[in-house]
Amino acid sequence: MTALRFAERLRDLVGDVDVLLSDIWGVVHNGLVAFPEACEALHSFREQGGTVILITNAPRPADSVQRQLRKLGVADDIYDAIVSSGDLTRHFVADHPGQKMFWLGPERDNSIYRGLDPVLAPLEQADYIVCTGLFDDETESAETYRALMLQARERKLTLVCANPDIVVERGDRLIYCAGAIAELYLELGGEVIFYGKPHRPIYQRAIALAAERRGRAVQLGRVLAIGDSVRTDLAGAHGFGIDCLFVTRGIHAEEFEGIDQLDPASVKELFGHPPRALMRELRW
C-alpha cells in the first residue's frame, strides 16, 4: 500500500475513464447551495465525451431529485441520468401490492409513493416498514426510535431502508438519515433490506443506464466513482469492483483538516481499501 496525496484536478485522473458515477450530496451540493466548481468539472467531463451518472441515496424518485438540483442551481447538462435509492424502493413497494406498509419518514419524502397507491397502516397492523428518514431530523436521532424498533422486531417486520446514509451534511451541520435507524434495527435483531450505496443494485442500475447512453457495454475498469463517504461511496465502489475518487470536504472533513498526504498506515486506518485518489473538493 502506498501513500495517498491530494489531487488538484479531475482532468488529471480521467484519461482512462469513460463513465463517472458521482455522489450528489457532499460532492455537488451540501443541501443548501451547489458547488459551482464541482458542477463545472462534471460538465467538462461530459463535453470531452464522458458519461456522468449521478447516484444518490436520496429516498425520492429521480425526477424529484432533479427538481431539487434545479432549485439549487445545478444545471441538467452536468449529468446524463440520475439513479436514486428512492427509485429502487419504489420497485419493492410495487412488487408487494395490497400489503400494509408503515412509513417512517418526513412528509417531504412522500414523492417516493407517487402513483403507487400504497396501503399505509400503523405499525401494529403493518406487514413491513419503509424508512425514508426520521420524522424530524432537526431534533431526533436513531435512539429516538429504539422503542418503536423493539416493537417492530417483536412483530418480525422487515424494514426497507430507502437511504442507507447514517448522516449527511445540511449546511455546516450533520443530520441523521434513515440508515441510522436501519443500523439500530439490525443491532436489535431486525431484518433490513437496504436500497442504495454501498449495495450492488444501485450500481448495477447506474452501469445499465451508462451503457444505454453510450450505446455500448461499459467496462468497469473505465468507470470512476466519486463520493465523500467511506461507508457508502468508497465501500460501495470497492464492492462493485470500480475505483473511487474520495472528496474530503463532506462528512469526513474534520478528519482531513490540515492533512496534505496520508502515509500507508493512515490510509489503512481511514479507508481499509484505499481510493484511487483524494481531492478536497471536486474541480476540473
Poorly predicted sequence stretches spanning 5 or more consecutive residues? none
Could you spell the SSE succession in H and E letters? Answer: EEHEHEHEEEHEEEHEHEHEHEHE
CATH structural fold name of the largest domain: Rossmann fold
Helical amount: 25-40%
Q: In one word, what is the shape?
A: globular
What's the architecture of the largest domain, going by CATH?
3-Layer(aba) Sandwich
Main β-sheet description = 6 strands, parallel
How many separate helices? Answer: 9
Q: How many separate domains?
A: 2
What Rg is obtained from the alpha carbons, in whole angstroms?
Answer: 19 Å
- Give the beta-strand count: 15
Which structural class is indicated by helix and strand composition? alpha/beta
Written account of the structure:
With 284 residues, the chain is an alpha/beta fold. It has two domains: 165 residues, HAD superfamily/HAD-like (Rossmann fold), CATH 3.40.50.1000; 98 residues, Rossmann fold (3-Layer(aba) Sandwich), CATH 3.40.50. It is built from nine helices and 15 strands. The chain has a six-stranded parallel β-sheet. The protein has a five-stranded parallel β-sheet with strand order 6-5-7-8-11, with helices on one face. β7, α4 and β8 form a beta-alpha-beta unit. It is globular, with a radius of gyration of 19 Å. The chain starts with a strand and ends in a 5-residue tail after the last strand. The mean pLDDT is 92.
